[in-house]
Write a structure and sequence with these properties.
The protein is α/β, with parallel strands linked by helices. 32% of the residues lie in helices and 19% in strands. The strands form 3 sheets. The chain has a 7-stranded mixed sheet with strand order 1-11-10-9-2-8-3. It has a two-stranded antiparallel sheet with strand order 4-7. A two-stranded antiparallel ribbon has the order 5-6. α1 packs across α2. It starts with a strand and ends with a strand.
Length: 210
């Protein structure tokens, strides 16, 4: 795997410029971008920086995190707080993501997106207002295990951590989730299939391929 050293600022600039000219697979006016990575890889930070870079270039960027679409605790924790199969396949409300995010941004959609649905802290609906994403605006969806749900992304970015870095940077209380990411690597191969790969073992010195 050949990767090139880069700074975060340069990486964000290159990605933002690429998004300005990104065509959508279905002809919709809203490119949909995945920022995929384990929580320890902090893909949400990259999404926020990309949104800022797009704004400077006169383009809207809507950051949506999958943590805002967690299923209620009674559903996602039905088989216990550390059930790997539930974490891998059932923690996130993919139906709601389709209904509230992807369908409105598909061909013929309204552009009216619900940015989050469920608060994992209060375990209640967020009641957030809908957001109108103007034509040309970019969806920046970040979260873990994104690429095995068949979402219609127009560009995919994976923030990669080696197994050692992932273990070091994951809180000990969440180490039970690590086998899910090992399975994800084996079954989905994000490093080999995404459009842009970012390695962030040392958060000060990323490397990329894109």
């Amino acid at each position: 795997m050949r990767l090139e050293a880069i700074t975060w600022d340069r990486l964000v600039d290159l990605l933002a410029e690429r998004l300005l000219d990104l065509d959508t697979a279905d002809g919709a006016p809203w490119p949909r971008v995945a920022l995929d990575g384990a929580p320890a890889a902090r893909p949400g930070d990259l999404a926020e920086r990309l949104a800022d870079a797009l704004r400077v270039r006169g383009r809207a960027g809507l950051v949506v995190g999958t943590e805002g679409f967690l299923r209620p605790a009674s559903v996602r924790l039905e088989y216990g707080h550390q059930d790997l199969e539930s974490y891998y396949s059932g923690w996130y409300d993919t139906g709601a993501l389709w209904r509230e995010v992807f369908d409105p941004l598909g061909h013929g959609g309204s552009g009216r997106v619900l940015p989050d649905l469920w608060d994992p802290v209060t375990d209640r609906a967020t009641r957030s207002p809908y957001v109108e994403l103007p034509p040309g605006g970019v969806l920046l969806l970040h979260g873990p295990l994104l690429l095995h749900h068949w979402f219609p992304f127009d560009l995919t970015v994976h923030v990669l951590l080696s197994p050692g870095a992932l273990r070091r940077r994951t809180p000990e209380a969440e180490h039970w989730t690590l086998p899910a990411f090992e399975r994800y690597e084996q079954e989905t191969d994000p490093a080999g299939t995404v459009d842009v790969l970012v390695r962030a073992d040392d958060p000060r010195h990323p490397a990329w391929r894109g």
